[in-house]
Design goal:
By secondary structure, this protein is α/β, with parallel strands linked by helices. It folds into two domains: 6-10 and 255-357, Lyase, Ornithine Decarboxylase, Chain A, domain 1 (Beta Barrel), CATH 2.40.37.20; 39-236, TIM Barrel (Alpha-Beta Barrel), CATH 3.20.20.10. It is 28% helix and 24% strand. It has helices at 18-32, 48-56, 67-79, 97-108, 151-161, 180-203, 219-223, 245-250, 334-340, and strands at residues 13-17, 61-64, 86-90, 112-118, 132-138, 146-147, 165-170, 210-213, 233-235, 260-271, 274-277, 293-295, 302-306, 311-314, 326-331, 343-348, 351-357. The strands form two sheets. Strands 1, 10, 11, 12, 13, 14, 15, 16 and 17 form a nine-stranded mixed β-sheet that branches. Strands 2, 3, 4, 5, 6, 7, 8 and 9 form an eight-stranded parallel β-sheet that branches. It starts with 12 loop residues before the first strand and ends in an 11-residue tail after the last strand.
């Protein structure tokens, strides 16, 4: 079957270029130093062919936000005839039926080590015996996790988990200061506290298997911290596989290839300096009202506002597009943008390959 062209697609449409994603993964491995020090968060990828690119690059350990992501990733590894060890952390707090589903997933994929997060020793007995346990550490984001200085509870988790104890998960997603030096300074202060907790565990005769830190904005700072380089430490940036406007803003020194765009058509011309496209908040997720999207063909145009089905741009009247014109939008925030689509068009360096399901979007069906 001939792959569809842009002109043949109904809009809005999610477009993923595998060539750009492949190069982004290679650049991340080079920056981090080794595929073994990277535990990418596949909540960004969402598409099995992109997950396969991680495996091709030698990455064998991952983070997921949902059981569906973990299932798609594990199936992808099986389809690639994966027989060596692999490691998937559900970086989420699971309860009740979700733990039953995770146990079934671990049974289906016996060569994959599955783990999850807890923030209290009281949670450990409910985690299935086949599933590993990481202590979730709060470095100041105040979303989940126990205080980084609560060594007593961290030690209690490690003792309750026994040989299933995987280590410490210390995500610092709040570290995205505009000044890179300030970001590094504050991130390093948090890592110093994690290492003190690590040392206390060692003194108690417990050696954490792994310390996980750092999403996309903070991971360069983790790599310059000498103490983390002396232990079993991994960073977990995920957005770097696709990049978006927010990544470009947060990592200005990085070479950026935008691997994801949302194809859209100009739907209306409300005034001489405005145009409206047919991709709104149901198709493209903004990082903030000031960072909605940018049109590759018209980078000078500024996105002003969104509604569910539309985004309004302002531009110089001399370059305003016509009704029906195709544009490619780079999202402000790519992770939830990919999650909005059920199907995408896969490309290879600009050449269409065909349609593919966004198999890991959303959550698993209820009760499965």
């Amino acid at each position: 079957m001939t792959p569809p062209t842009f002109e043949a697609l109904s809009t809005p449409a999610l477009v993923i270029d595998l060539g750009s994603a492949r190069r982004n993964i290679a650049a991340a491995v080079k920056s981090i130093g080794s595929p073994d020090r990277w535990r990418p968060h596949v909540k960004t990828a969402k598409v099995a062919p992109v997950m396969a690119l991680y495996l091709d690059a030698g990455v064998r350990q991952f983070k997921c936000a949902t059981l569906l992501e973990a299932s798609v990733l594990a199936d992808c590894r099986s389809a690639a005839n994966g027989t060596g060890p692999a490691d998937i952390l559900i970086a989420h707090h699971l309860f009740g039926p979700a733990l039953v589903q995770l146990e079934a997933l671990a049974k289906k994929h016996p060569t994959v080590r599955f783990s999850t997060l807890v923030e209290s020793a009281s949670q450990v007995p409910s985690v299935p015996d086949s599933v590993g346990v990481f202590a979730d550490i709060d470095l100041g984001m105040h979303r989940t996790g126990l205080d980084v200085d609560d060594v007593a509870e961290t030690l209690a988790i490690a003792r309750a988990a026994g040989p299933r104890f995987g280590g410490l998960h210390a995500y610092d997603g709040h570290r995205h200061e505009h000044d890179l030096g300030e970001r590094e300074r504050l991130a390093h202060a948090g890592y110093d506290r994690v290492l003190r907790s690590h040392g206390e565990l060692q003194s108690a005769g417990i050696e954490p298997v792994e310390i996980i830190t750092s999403g996309t904005p903070a991971y360069p700072a983790a790599l310059t911290h000498s103490g983390l380089g002396e232990i079993h430490h991994r960073v977990s940036p995920g957005t770097v596989v696709y990049h978006d406007l927010r990544t470009r803003e947060q990592l200005p020194d990085h070479a950026i290839e935008f691997a994801v765009t949302v194809l859209t058509r100009v739907a209306s011309l409300p005034s001489t300096d405005l145009f409206t496209v047919d991709a709104g908040s149901k198709a493209i997720e903004a990082a903030s009202p000031s960072l909605i999207a940018s049109a590759i063909e018209l980078p000078e145009a500024k996105a002003l506002r969104q509604s569910e089905e539309h985004t309004v741009f302002r531009c110089d009247p001399a370059i305003r597009p016509s009704r029906g014109d195709l544009l490619r939008l780079v999202p402000g925030h790519v992770c939830p943008t990919v999650n909005l689509a059920s199907t995408c068009l896969l490309m290879e360096d600009g050449q269409p390959l065909g349609l593919a399901p966004v198999a890991a979007r959303g959550h698993a069906p209820l009760g499965t």
